[in-house]
Design goal:
Layout lengths: L3 H8 L1 H5 L15 H15 L10 E6 L6 E4 L15 E2 L4 H14 L23 H5 L20 H9 L15 H15 L3 H10 L8 E2 L11 E4 L17 E4 L5 H8 L1 E3 L1 H13 L5 H7 L4 H6 L5 E2 L2 E6 L4 E5 L4 E9 L2 E7 L5 E6 L6 H10 L8
Antiparallel strand pairs: 1-2, 1-13, 3-7, 4-7, 5-6, 8-9, 9-10, 10-11, 11-12, 12-13
Amino acid sequence: MPLMSRMSSRVGIGAVLSAASVFVAWSESAYSESCGSRALVGLQEQAGAAFSTRAPALSVSVKQAEVSPVTWKSPSTDLIRSEQEQPLFHVGSITKTFTAALILLLDQERKLRIADPIDGWIDLPSSQGITVEMLLTHTSGIPDILDLPGHAAQDSPEDSLAHIVKADPLFLPGTRWKYSNSNYLLLGLIVERVTGQSYADVLSEKILQPLELNDTYLWGTEDRQGVLPGFRLACGSIGQASCDVGKTYPLERISNGRDWRVAWSAGGLVSTARDLSIWIQALVKGTLLDDAHRKLLLTPTPLSIAGLNKMGQFNGISWHAMSMGLMQFKLDNGSQVWGHSGYIDGFSAIAAAGEGLPSMAITVSLEQSNVYELLASGFSKQMCFSAP
């Protein structure tokens, strides 16, 4: 994707954007069409405020309990023309929440155990001592595929595995936390090798069809009708200058992202804000998993807390910890939510839900937006995006 690690190296999102957040205080005392429209415009402008630009498109979806989601989308602009009621976006690492759920479902069905070593399915020279759980919790020590030489846009999951096999571990398994897309590529392969089916088919059978997430699919080689174009600032990539706060950069249109295919089970999904708001509520608050596995999903791991101690701080929100496929966020008002962000060529997204709060998903057609601060701002304006 530029998933989390690539965003950190390309843009320095934690240090760069948090200093330039723009918060617009809208009245939350009562719902109105005007309130929702103004809040949406505020988020769209905030998405690119650090670089004096505006996100070409943005969609917000809020779901309260059993009520159908309420979804807002930005109007058509000179850059993006869309008549879709529910526009589709590439959603990057939010894919990891689906992959983690599949693994926990397979554990629930006793088709594998998360305590099992991965060498039953993955032939990795450095895999001794690595368990499925360590992949889930980013404590395996396996380096990120995006940091490895040779990976390319056309790489299949097996090609990615061939790169990972050659890489030296970053640390002894289970001793540290470090976010790595490789972990979730390997989990996708384990899903296939346990079930004898393709990752896409298992995803559809166990999650997409039961929850009627009809606008969510795994990207292959082309987009379905209704997928918006993505954009990125002309900075921070290979051969480009770094992205400096306060400077204005041209927008580059992304028509075939370098990482859309290679991201696969770590970041290859396309979806809508509406589908994501349904999904994150089903995962965090629903009955998809039994009580024991949902508890695993919602238990912060100590190594992640230690690893995030000096990072993950944004205006209005902090990324405090991770569990098995979910990020734990703390809002400045004391609320706590679980979810995940996603960054991939041309797009960014975030989805989260918590006790006493609705589920919320925000999808953006701008790669360098700070979705963490957008989430905090979105929750502060949640009444504007809710049904009357």
